[in-house]
Amino acid sequence: MNRRDALTRAAWLLGGTLSAPTLQAMNRWEQLVSNGRTSHQTNSFLTETQREIVARTAELIIPRTDTPGAIDAGVPAFIDLMLRDCYKKPVQDAFLTGLSDLERKNFLTLTPDQQTALLKQVEAEAQTSSSPTYWLLTKELTLLGYFTSEPGIKASFDYQPIPGKFVPIKIKPGQKDFMYGNQV
Amino acid sequence: MNLNIKADKAQTYDAIVIGSGMTGGWAAKELTEKGLNVLVLERGYELKHVADYKNAMKDPWEFPHRGRITNVAAEEHYATMFFSAKEGSQYLFANDKENPYIQKRPFNWIRAYHTGGKSLLWGKHTYRWNPQDFLANAKEGIGIDWPIRYEDLVPWYTYVEKFVGVSGQAEGLAVLPDSYFLPPMAMTAPEVHLKKSVAQKLNRPITIGRVAHLTKAMPQHLAVGRTDCQFRNRCTRGCPYGGYFSSLAATLPAARNTNRLTMVHNAIVKEILYDDKAQKAKGVRVIDQNTLEVREFYAKLIFLNAGTVGSTSILMNSKSSRFPNGMGNDSEQLGRNLMDHHLAIGARADVEGFENDYYFGARPGSLYIPRFRNWGTDKRSYLRGFGYQGGASRADWSRGAAETGFGADFKTRMTQPGPWKFSLTGFGEVLSNPNNRFYLSETETDKWGLPQLVFDADFGENERAMRKDIMNDAAEMLEAAGFKNVTPYDNPVAHMGLGIHEMGTARMGRDPKTSVLNKYNQVHACKNVFVTDGSGMTSSSNVNPSLTYMALTARAASYAVAQLKARNL
């Protein structure tokens, strides 16, 4: 067995713990590696317009409310970095295809309500897709980028870097979740 | 001439220990504490306890990729991606690209080349083997019989458990003998419910995982600088508290406290040197992994603790006129009978209810369900058994990726704990099989000029038959508890090596014609060489093996020193 098979197999093992987009991405590992880059690139992955669409999408997923939103937490730059460093060409291409579709529909010139309506449509289509899409990747990376960022964590959770004990407890409805810093 | 003798003397120790991981640490501790001057050779870089755990105290946002593996890292860590997919722990896994090997059949060789080795990365589940584990081969005609019995190990189990610190609950079960325990970790509400349901409906016991974490540090732990587990569950980044057992936090400091420990890093052992006249080993030849400089070290006693595959490959590379096919290989069994535990199979379920139940802290352990198949009156079509690890937890924000919806309400929902999920993963025994093996490549070498290893091993019919029960029995137990959406799974790509419980390849036995090591882990035909890591295992049980390696090492060290003092070595 070669290295690419090993990667595909290892990725399969992760099936239980990874969300759909990442799993889909990893299942195609053999293909990905053969097309893959092996070194970091220093340039930005997205063009300025593309980044604006990503930023707007992310902000609609996690908007600024009484707590910071996706843009406040630096999610657009994070998505750019992740696409460049952690995904290979076929997944990047799938992402860019979805992105250019939104560009063609003049996403950035729509009203917020129109944008939301369009993304709901995109989300419904993504549910039927068996491969990574712009929507699934953006949603997953927005959640990851936001809920592991300093502003996201501090605004959202009861952050406990050193819990010091493990005890069963009772919680009240609506209580914030704990965050322990062991997610990476 | 005179100069050479002096130089040799400076490189001469009472004992050389090859490897500084789980068992190398124990060999170093035991041998130094018994008065020997010991040299520990580590092939990897020096890693200092606490000071070099560079990611241990980092917050999630300090990792640029928030823990995800990058394309570059995936290329460099293909075998370990399953584990090193975490940005914080990747630096503790060996680089597969720089340390290549060949897979004739799928095998992932997971390595940690630095002080402490894989003892920094283990799952820490710590179980005694039971008396049947040592009898089954002989009873069933599989492989060869163990040259020892459970009773031979009992005092050594107790001895190492006290120093290691094993958290757990005494249950009085024959299938899972109790250890010397520190207080057990707590179960969550759905876990308690599963335990009760499975006891009532299926008469199977469930206990809290027995893990090498200090739930209450004792004087022997404090003495080497360890303190209580802080329940951060960031173990794979290295633990600055010494909350879990590693050679770096526990046995190596104990050895250092004797002032009889010398450590040399970056020293890849090329071979053990055999003295034809004296008919024993006289030392080792090493290659500096950075400078390629070749050096020799000498000792009366050699402990080989480089990890199962590492130790056996060193024996294979140690060729002499007496041992043309590798040191101790008169039986031609060197490299054969490679075992691992089979995993990546079990069941998951959704748990309804328990909405008000939660937990505070991140528990670095899980439940344990001991073997119940082919035990007592239960008889199956296959041999041996399996156990489960697993537990219940509440889903976090990451569940949102699979849910529909977005916006302000969605954002708020993700800040609250999600529904409970239950997961059970089986670990099954793999039978000894001479055709499951690795050997030295005749054509491919690594950058140090050593032959690459060729792995040629797979699960057999017995393992495949067992897997059906592992999956179905997991589902049965989750259903007995009334959990919803019970989903059994059997991952078809599970293969050898991923369990990181590689065992065998230099097995113990009574007969030098069929085994490599005797009942004290001594090479039959070269008595001053002891191999006390997983290489010596004659069968694989279904419980995690590290505790048994440690007990065997302490036992062998005690024997070796007694033999040395009696001038038998």
Overview of this structure, please?
The complex is a heterodimer of chains A (184) and B (569). With 184 residues, chain A is mainly alpha-helical. Chain A contains 9 helices and 3 strands; from the N terminus they run H-H-H-H-H-H-H-H-H-E-E-E. The model of chain A is unreliable at 1-41 (pLDDT under 50). Helix content of chain B is 24%, strand content 20%. Chain B has 13 helices and 20 strands. In chain B, helix 2 links the parallel strand 1 (12-18) and strand 2. Classes of the chains: A mainly alpha (184), B alpha/beta (569). The interface between A and B is large, with 80 and 76 residues.
Structure described in brief:
Chain A has helices at 3-13, 20-27, 29-35, 48-61, 75-86, 89-104, 112-127, 134-147, 150-156; strands at 158-159, 167-170, 178-179. Chain A has 184 residues and is mainly alpha-helical. In chain B, strands 1, 2, 7, 8, 9, 10, 19 and 20 form an eight-stranded mixed beta sheet that branches. Chain B has a six-stranded antiparallel beta sheet with strand order 6-13-14-15-11-18, covered by helices on one side.
Question: What secondary-structure arrangement, pairings included, does this model have?
Answer:
The complex is a heterodimer of chains A (184) and B (569).
Chain A: H1 3-13, H2 20-27, H3 29-35, H4 48-61, H5 75-86, H6 89-104, H7 112-127, H8 134-147, H9 150-156, E1 158-159, E2 167-170, E3 178-179
Parallel strand pairs in A: 1-3
Helix pairs in contact in A: 1-3, 4-5, 4-6, 4-8, 5-8, 6-8
Chain B: H1 2-10, E1 12-18, H2 22-33, E2 38-41, H3 71-76, H4 81-84, E3 102-103, H5 136-140, H6 150-164, E4 166-167, E5 181-182, H7 189-202, E6 207-208, H8 219-222, H9 247-256, E7 261-264, E8 267-275, E9 280-288, E10 294-304, H10 308-317, E11 345-351, E12 357-360, E13 367-369, E14 386-394, H11 408-413, E15 420-428, E16 437-445, E17 451-456, H12 461-480, E18 484-490, E19 522-523, E20 526-531, H13 546-565
Helix pairs in contact in B: 2-9, 2-13, 6-13
